[in-house]
Amino acid sequence: MTGFHPQAEVSEYTIPEGCPACAADLPVRVSAKGPLAVCSHCHWIGRPVLTVTHKGLQVSVKASRA
Q1: Residue 64, pLDDT above cutoff 80
Q2: Is the separation of the CB atoms in 42 and 21 below 8 Å?
Q3: Span 18-40, mean pLDDT?
Q4: Could you tell me the pTM of the whole model?
Q5: Which of 30, 47, 50, 56 is most buried (CB neighbours < 10 A)?
Q6: Distance CA 59, CA 1 (A)
Q7: How would you write the chain as a 3-class SS string?
């Protein structure tokens, strides 16, 4: 890709009922540093894993250890 500047590319998405803590809608921001999600309802913060599949973009969250 000619003229692609990753530091300038930021995409924002909302995953309906995507918060793993409270099931509220989950805003996700994807930048050159990777994805970051912050729930505006319960304030859960995490780094979702984005995977491109044959069906589209899959967003998942790794379980944390207690």
Answers
A1: no
A2: yes
A3: 92
A4: 0.70
A5: 30
A6: 25
A7: CCCCCHHHCCEEEEECCCCCCCCCCEEEEEECCEEEEECCCCCCEECCEEEEECCEEEEECCCCCC
* Residue 57 token pair: 């973009």
At 39, list the tokens.
């729930």
Find tokens 């998942």 and name the residue: 60
pLDDT at position 12 is 92
| CA–CA gap between residue 34 and residue 30 (Å, rounded) | 6
The amino acid present at 50, given as its one-letter code, is L
Residue 35's nearest CA partner among 7, 59, 8 is: 59
Please give the structure tokens belonging to residue 51.
């995977």
